Amino acid sequence: MTAKECIKGRRSVRQFTEQPVDRELLSEIVETASYYPSWKHTQIVRFVAVEGEKKERLSRECTDMWPNNGKIMESAPMVMAVTIIKNRSGFERDGSFSTSKGDRWQMYDAGIASQTLCLAAHESGIASVILGLFDDGKVADILELPEDREVAALIPMGYAAEEPAAPRRKPVEEILSFC
Questions:
Q1: Smaller CB count within 10 Å for the chain: N or C?
Q2: CA distances (Å), 127 to each of 89, 119, 120, in order?
Q3: Helix (H) or strand (E) run with residue 34 in it
Q4: pLDDT digits (tens, 9 = 90+) for 113-146
Q5: Are 156 and 72 in contact (CB under 8 A)?
Q6: What pTM was estimated for this model as a whole?
Q7: Which of 26, 54, 72 is nearest to 140 (CA)?
């Protein structure tokens, strides 16, 4: 599979089979995803694979305002929590911000890492969808995250039980300009 085929072929899948994701395969996917670029190579993203009772708790307790996200997580055999180490990306050693973007760099890093993980998973036959709507505090409590970390995204992963069609894309003329 070429990079172009991988990018154009990946879909956000919201229904999964019950087949678990092999831990060795997951380790290979994360090893590939670890090559995501990050601000000043800080590599602040930490992945937490959540299965079993904790995954069930995430789907039940952390999506009250977004029940569809709970159903998606219930359907998946595993949810990958994308966590970040706070106050590193975008910061200098003295704690000051490097740029006017302040601490927003950490979300750039988390987004890049999340998409890199999803592309690596897709190449390996594992489907995914990136979720951003959840109760951050409840997720952190369930995962027992250390104080220096926060959750950036939850990614249900597994084998697809659906094959979503590619959504319509805006034409290049609408999304590209030259100056």
A1: C
A2: 29, 9, 10
A3: none
A4: 999 999 999 999 999 999 999 999 999 999 999 9
A5: yes
A6: 0.93
A7: 54
